Fold each of these.
Amino acid sequence: MTAKFSVRALAALAIWAIPEAAASVLPATRPPRVGFTDTVTSHVIPMARHDVPGSHDIHLRRRATNVSTSLTNVHDVYYIIDLLVGKEIIPVSIDTGSSDTWMKPDCGLGEGLKGELSGGIVPNVSFGRQYADGTFVEGYFGFEDVTVGGLTAKRQRLGIVNNTYWQGDGRVSGLLGLAYPYMTSLDGPYETQPLYDPVFTTLWKEKLISPMFSIALSRHVDQSPTQSPVDPSLETSYLALGGLPPVSYDEDSWARTPIQDMSTLKAWGITTKEHGLYILTAEAYVYGNANGTFTVTGEGLSRNVSQFPVTIDAGATLTYMPTILAKKLYASFDPPAELIAYGLYYAKCNAKVPQFGVQFGGKIFWMAPEDLLRQSARDPTKEWCRVGVTDSDSIDPILGVTFLNSVVAVFDVEHHEMRFASRTKY
Ligand SMILES: *[C@@H]1O[C@H](CO)[C@@H](O)[C@H](O)[C@H]1NC(C)=O
Ligand SMILES: *[C@@H]1O[C@H](CO)[C@@H](O)[C@H](O)[C@H]1NC(C)=O
Ligand SMILES: *[C@@H]1O[C@H](CO)[C@@H](O)[C@H](O)[C@H]1NC(C)=O
Ligand SMILES: *[C@@H]1O[C@H](CO)[C@@H](O)[C@H](O)[C@H]1NC(C)=O
Ligand SMILES: *[C@@H]1O[C@H](CO)[C@@H](O)[C@H](O)[C@H]1NC(C)=O
């Protein structure tokens, strides 16, 4: 879908249904485009999107010690990138919800790492990470050169995994964690390990790129030059280091919003003002039945302006919203979406899909109908399709792949700011 909409439509929306607090953040006229100097980078890496039907939710965000999680959701999408580790090409999935880069020698997760690490291993320090669904990896740390997008992080610290509960399916051998260094400290019983620089941090500190990266996650499966045949009419997914990916987007839709520090996630019990994850606060969530059309007129739409932290997580397939909000969205499907099993919301595959948008920096970023009702994720009867937003009272709200498929997302760690633009329809 295209999220392009006119200023007049926005104004109409503002007048029609918005509480004063929210109306004030909507621009009456188009704001001047200042401060967006992002340009397309040559350090752009195509990614393959891989869909795993019916697997468990390998929701990749780092688990907080004392937050219990019991997700049995279906995680079925990840984005694969090739890393050159020493002399070996290792396919890994990307994650903006954690910071370690790790890989596992052999064991059903793709090719795996075979050789020795040129930089040796870190003595007496074990590596262990648990992710929000109970999957875990364990092993040790070592050093090796890691090349990605033509850039080499020399003597990069990596996790080498020798024990895991991980839903490998032969395509990937590990993970590229793209969050801040802080997240690497959350290890051991006291979660106070010394920090180290993740791959992306190493690259910008070595001044190989400016301190930002961006992603364009596409809905189409396996579109990458390393896959053949490539259908040029389908969109490729990209990770772009130091600039923007080469996809089309609506120039007028750029918006910026600050990245919040870790103390914002109250349930984690962390008080530090350090940045760790890409935590944002949306100005509003816009949802409701707009008669199945995707022109914003405001008709049938409601706004929820409560402010809660939401994490941008490319390692999560779905978008997780507070239950109250999610239920209102489910009710806006026609016929309404239903709870099939714990945490699993489905609607009839031919249901009329409502609108759902998230507002940052005065702009609304609409989730595409294909992501709100996922035709490729069906129940065994094939009549019910999975809703791309789930309720999340057990974990903090997340904007996952179902949201990211409609935007270019810029992660600017120099200014602790994220920028978004709406992708043009693809
Ligand atoms: C690692 O642990 C072993 C056994 O406790 C110890 O003998 C050795 O000195 C330690 N090495 C380092 C570098 O700390
Ligand atoms: C994994 O690596 C750790 C750290 O080197 C070691 O203590 C452990 O025995 C290894 N486990 C296996 C199964 O090889
Ligand atoms: C988590 O642990 C911290 C530190 O022990 C504590 O302050 C906080 O209340 C705990 N949070 C929950 C949700 O139990
Ligand atoms: C469009 O939606 C509005 C608000 O839900 C409703 O009042 C109206 O009847 C709908 N129109 C059509 C044609 O469905
Ligand atoms: C908006 O969402 C928040 C968070 O779920 C909820 O607490 C609040 O009740 C909602 N407000 C309305 C008007 O739906």
Note: Residues 123-124 surround 2-acetamido-2-deoxy-beta-D-glucopyranose (ligand 1) (CB under 6 Å).
Amino acid sequence: MTEYTVLKAGLKKQLEEIERLYPDASYNAQVEEFREQEYPQLNGITYLDHAATTLYSSSLIDAVSSDLKKTLFGNPHSLSPSSLETTRRIQDTRVRVLQLFNADPEHFDVVFCGNTTAAIKLVAHAFAARPNNVGSGFQYKVHEDSHTSLVGIRQMATDSQALSSYQMDAFVSSKGTDEFGLMAYPAQSNMTGQRYPLSWAGTLRQNRPGWYTLLDAAGLVTTSPLDLSNVSTAPDFVALSFYKIFGYPDLGGLIVRKASSSILQSRKYFGGGTVSFVMNLFDHPSNDLPHAVRKSGDPHEYLEDGTVPFHSIIALDHAISNHSRLYGNFKKISQHTQALGTLVFKSLKARKHVNGASIVDIYTDNHPSHLTSQGATFAFNLRKSDGSLVGFNDVLKLASVRDIHLRTGGLCNPGGVMKWMDLSAQEMRKNFAEGKRCGDEWDLMNGKPTGAVRVSLGAMSTLDDVARFISFIDEFYVEKTVSCIATELFPPSSNTTKISKISIYPIKSCAAFDIPPSKPWKIMTQGLEYDREFCLIHQGTGKVMDMKMYPKMALIRPFIDLKTQTLSISCKQASTALRIPLDESLPTHSYLITKKCNSKVCGDTVVVQAYSEKRISEWFSDALGVPCTIARYPSAPDGGGRYMKNHLRQANGEIPIALRNESPILIVNRKSLDPINEVISTTGGKLSDISVFRSNIIVDGPQPFDEDKWLELGFRNSNSTIQLLGPCRRCHMICIDQATSERSPEPFVTLSKLRTINGKIYFGQHATFICDSDEQTGSIQIGDEVDINYIDLDTSDTDSGESCSSGNTAITVDTTADTAEPAVKQEAARTSCILQ
Ligand SMILES: *Cc1c(COP(=O)(O)O)cnc(C)c1O
């Protein structure tokens, strides 16, 4: 038996134990049976992001497509037979939606809209537009664990406040008479999976007749029933997204309690279909002589502007039937996901490092065995054996390599993040001032996480999904023994080496141009000549494209011809190579327009000159299947304004880096790949080529990881020096084979086990060129002899870095020079190698 089957068998036993709590839970076998056929998109993938969207089944798509193929559906606003057919379907679907939630159509209506957010906005606009004769403005109370889309309502309220559960309880339970307001909360938090009492709505109505409740049910309904059978205690408005229940169609709804609906009439705007009378007059109407009269029937009649998304509504009808055929009812789904969720929760909690330390902080006040207070969604951060945090971004990268799909970051829940990460308003603002933005890669700042990892289960999740996830946690995050590839294992045998390869990447993220052996190449403070001077930009977003998103870029091969001063670019798809002159002053550049692109390179905004000529953009667009063109970074002597701070070993330091990632030069030691490949070969993985590290200079160092101890490299021929700046942090871009553009998990997986320091994965060294002459340039060539000048370990300048904790090895982590990553800077209090 493999390790995995042992793990899965153990989890299966635990699951059976848990399922005793839930008599309807055990449909695992059923899902396993139909999953391959119904969800072929899941083949080989562990999908744990159902809280973002669950998945549609094959049979749903087949049913919708055959219906659309055989039936003629006209626009519902006409009166032709095809139009009436559409209207009839919409009417029927409306009732079916209400039945899904036990909502009596006599007392409830559903308004179709884009998504939950659009439903929330409809309510907000109506409240904000309450006519003056009944008093203007409204008070707003929102639960602290709310989605950003609920938080946004406060911009329209006269007075608003975020409440904890305790405060919300107190508010709904105390009497109040003369106010008018809206209270909103999630039925289930999109971040923590915590569930909040549906009874708040009824209690509020009883105690404060001037108040309304807006329930955000988007998180809950993914896996749970919502019961609106008691009209007197039901929320006034319920917002939800249908794609979160069925995976498809992309459609939302607002369920309105009809008795509370008149406030929605205050909405100012009217669109086609929502008025029963309208004139084209623009002076001020009076009450006696109106210019337009809103429809007065059910809320959907006066709230659905223009043509409803009728094909989607027809698809929704199929989605409801299909879902019930596959899963029975919501109660079953709820118990099934809850049992699996409990297993995730218990397994994470039970895991311990070799020293007994716990591996996880799960952010919830509740236990998943209480269905009413916790759903099958969990937010957490992982910890190492020394108690330090693992950045959620690194978890995301490794999970992606294992094809495990989860969500990380602030999760669109600012209150949840502030509460659980223990971030004060001041700390949030400080992070923002330091550059933190929603959705970026900064996971740890000033010693605290900026968000979390979230896993969430859905109707089609199985025990296997849970087992794959736990096995991933065991493989990478449970420390079992102390080990670290450290340099003292390999005492240096010599202090000289040779340059074995020189590469530049004229177009950022595209293939390397290897400098021919006989050719000396110019080197300057900003790096090697023509390295990353060009880039590709997406014509839609203006953003600089990278290989992570577009792996095929590896197949675009640039060639620099210094004789003819041209950059020629070839790729398999194009029959002819594209030629671009290197001399920027040539008149041929009449087609070069300056386009200010707020493109981002490692968080910096850059301005590039885009080539707008159609011939050029079409060449690249065809090659990649993406609308894009090439752009040039002005090769100004100052490197065009992007700098890296060099506090490390040079007092005066800003180094120009143009479009280069983080430093002017990247240098790797070919020998360091050997121990990595040795481990890979024992696991049967794909051996890696040194080209995946996309370095500029490859040397054959005396020993593996000798470069961790290098201070400077002196080139004998040109009498010039390269200064080392610190290790290079790696991401899963190194999994892209540079010859084929195919991805594999290696060498990232093995590297993460052997070369993780401070939670970051390192290989290679950043470097900069220092010229001993006044010209500020030099040249290097393959075969050049290199003298290694080592860091003086005895008098090691402690403020320049930290050492690997397992002994006095010299894996030096630069804790100050890494401008692109404050996380490295902040998290350096303790440096340790990962224990595996
Ligand atoms: C997903 C979600 C939303 C947002 O839904 P959209 O479809 O993006 O509008 C809001 N609240 C919760 C609780 C959610 O889970």
Note: Residues 496-835 form one domain.
